[in-house]
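Revision sheet: structure tokens.
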Amino acid sequence: MSDIDKKLSRLVEIMSILLSEKGCPWDRKQTHKSLRQHLLEEAYEVIEVIDEDRYDDLPGELGDLLLQVVFHAQMAAEKKLFDMDDVLKAINTKLIRRHPHVFEQVQKITAEEQIVMWEQTKLKNEGKKSAVDGVPRELPALLRAYRMQNKAATVGFDWPEIEPVWDKVHEEMEELKEAVASHQQENIKEELGDLLFSIVNLSRFLKVNPEDALRETIAKFEKRFKKVELEFKDRNIDMKDISLEEMDKVWDKVKAQERKKIVLKDG
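Predicted:
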């Protein structure tokens, strides 16, 4: 048995002890549904350390995520539904099935061709009824739209070039303006959704993950806004007592300082 096998077996053993009659009361109380949020939170913590390049923290966060997998598997084992061995066999089988260009004597393919082949394999061998099946409803909306559009593209439902995509964005923008002018809230919501969906489609053609782009922009906004707050705090000024124009001046100052640092760093 390899060292990795021993450690994985030990983790399963620890989880088994925690779920036993003499184990942890909190662990024993959990269900697959009660752990859903914890699984999601651990996944986002992994994303956070990757985004922040905190690779020293990554093993610990990946361990927390792995624990969630083992937790679910051991709870199922207690009910004789399946166990960790079944989980590992399932993923091993799936990886080999989805990579015939690696594990079988077939022609080498590009990364783009591989994505198409994956989706075709799912439709043929994994019981998928639609090309857009398999995109979790719980995903953030931007990411779900991005994944669904990618899946639809694998069966040819896609623009051949970027120009019609730009046209669609402009078309949806005009329709949103008309909806706003009509003062019909449901129509406004629908047209705003259509505009966001078309922008996600544009992001695909620009080879940018919209979820990553928006998350980075949010982080940038948070960082800048906190500096603006600090600026006024240092002046003993309550932001509620000043105009938007005054706040904008400090905001522009913060942006200029950031750009100067980037230029100096690159230089």
